[in-house]
Amino acid sequence: MKKIWYAIGIIVVVVAIGLVTFNAASKKSTNGKYTFDKITRGDLINTVSSTGTINAVSTVEVGTQVSGIIDKLNVDFNDQVRKGQLLAVLDTVLLKTALMDAQANLEKAKAMLEQATADYNRNLPLFEKGLISEAEFLPIKIQLKTQRANLTSAQAAFERAQRNLKYAFIHSPINGTVIQRNVEEGQTVAASFQAPVLFIIAEDLAKMEIHAQVDESDIGLIKEGQRVTFMVQAYPDKIFHGVVRQIRLQPTTIQNVVNYTVVIDAANNDNLLLPGMTATVDFIVEERKDVLLVPNTALRFQPSQQAMQEFFDQAKKRMEAAPDSVKNKLPNMASVPPGANSTRSRPKDAAAVWYLDENNRLAMAPFKAGITDGKLTEVVMSRDLKEGMQVIVGMSSGNATKTTSSTQRNFGPPRPF
């Protein structure tokens, strides 16, 4: 552990030199009072946000394969239906007459085949005995084959007419809920080019799915099985939960931004979620429970030149009084040139905040940073930081408060220096 804190001490020195160099460009100094914020303890979640549309997991479009007038409707919006239940009936008058005509043609074809068969059987022995020529027997033979073909065609037409009559009775293909009805009684539907959609039935509204659009810069953070929380405008105070089921590889471009569709499964046991609702989705990338949390405003704070110089002088005195074993592990401050890059040897997860010690003097507390949600940052390891500790977030001069801010990404540790 001593080696760890020696390394942290080295970081403090390097940071102090870098800040002195940075502030040397400004000749302003202030004696104003500091403003503070507390270090707290709690849960931290790093998320990727998106929006999506709620849909039923499985829906079926029920149409018709025959044209006609809607004679009767047996269901309406939101009705629960069972598989095989009669939903609607088309006018069957024309379909029945078409079936009768096909049946008559079938009987006629049977009779013609019976006659052709009798002619063939009567003339075949005569042809075999040479009493009639081949030229006389050939039309009889062809007539038999033609009537057989006519019977097959009449049989197909009859079956087609039977099936068309059955198509006039629209049945539900699944158990579910009618979420859309596109026709009224008396309306004419035409199935000339494609089957018109009469109803849309959702199989199970207790299970919903969300199609969320995630841009290419964040899609690498999304994984199958990842936990998701989301909200809908209808229930602004309620948080729903889901799980990522699929990341579709086909991209879509929206306003010159490449997006990928992420499918999320969500339970709807209370039937609060309705198809078509817009969901505000948060994908949980990282999560920490019961950790120390530092406000990011404290990470962005930089002391004035005068305060920084005082801190640097105190640090130099402490180092001069340190044992030789400690001095040998610290860098030679005289060898650090002005304007040197203080972040070159700094670990990526190193961070620091400023506070006032027991003597009311400016002090720095380095620590190892974890994840952040943009407002708070996790403290992974620190010797000085404690829950409830007041850290500096800015300087106040009169009624004005000065803070130093920088743009930070939604995830990863902040870079205060």
**Largest β sheet strand count, sense and barrel closure:** 6 strands, antiparallel, barrel
Q: Based on CA inertia axes, which overall geometry fits?
A: elongated
Query: Distance between termini?
Result: 24 Å
CATH class of the largest domain: Mainly Beta
**CATH architectural grouping of the largest domain:** Beta Barrel
The counted number of beta strands is: 20
N-to-C order of helices and strands: HEEEEEEHHEEEEEEEEEHHHEEEEE
Structural class by SSE content: alpha+beta
Strand order of the largest sheet: 2-11-14-13-12-15
- Our count of helices gives 6
- The proportion of residues in beta strands is 35-45%
Return Rg in Å.
41 Å
Set down the secondary structure blueprint.
Blueprint: H1 2-23, E1 33-38, E2 40-56, E3 59-63, E4 68-73, E5 80-81, E6 86-90, H2 93-128, H3 134-167, E7 169-171, E8 176-181, E9 188-189, E10 197-202, E11 207-215, E12 227-232, E13 235-254, E14 257-267, E15 278-295, H4 296-299, H5 305-320, H6 324-327, E16 350-356, E17 362-372, E18 376-381, E19 390-397, E20 400-402
Antiparallel strand pairs: 1-19, 2-11, 2-15, 3-10, 4-6, 4-9, 5-8, 6-7, 8-10, 11-14, 12-13, 12-15, 13-14, 15-18, 16-17, 17-18, 19-20
Helix pairs in contact: 1-5, 2-3
Provide a descriptive summary of the structure in words:
The chain is of the alpha+beta class. It has four domains: 2-43 and 291-402, conserved putative lor/sdh protein from methanococcus maripaludis s2 fold (Beta Barrel); 49-57 and 206-287, Efflux pump adaptor protein, beta barrel domain (Elongation Factor Tu (Ef-tu), domain 3, Beta Barrel); 59-89 and 172-203, Beta Barrel (OB fold (Dihydrolipoamide Acetyltransferase, E2P)), CATH 2.40.50.100; 92-167, Helix hairpin bin (Helix Hairpins). Helix content is 28%, strand content 38%. The protein has six helices and 20 strands. The chain has a six-stranded antiparallel β-barrel. A hairpin with a 2-residue loop joins strand 13 and strand 14. Helix 1 (2-23) runs antiparallel to helix 5 and helix 2 (93-128) runs antiparallel to helix 3 (134-167). The longest helix has 36 residues, at 93-128. The chain is elongated, with a radius of gyration of 41 Å. 23% of the residues are buried. Residues 1-6, 17-32, 333-343 and 404-417 have low confidence and may be disordered.
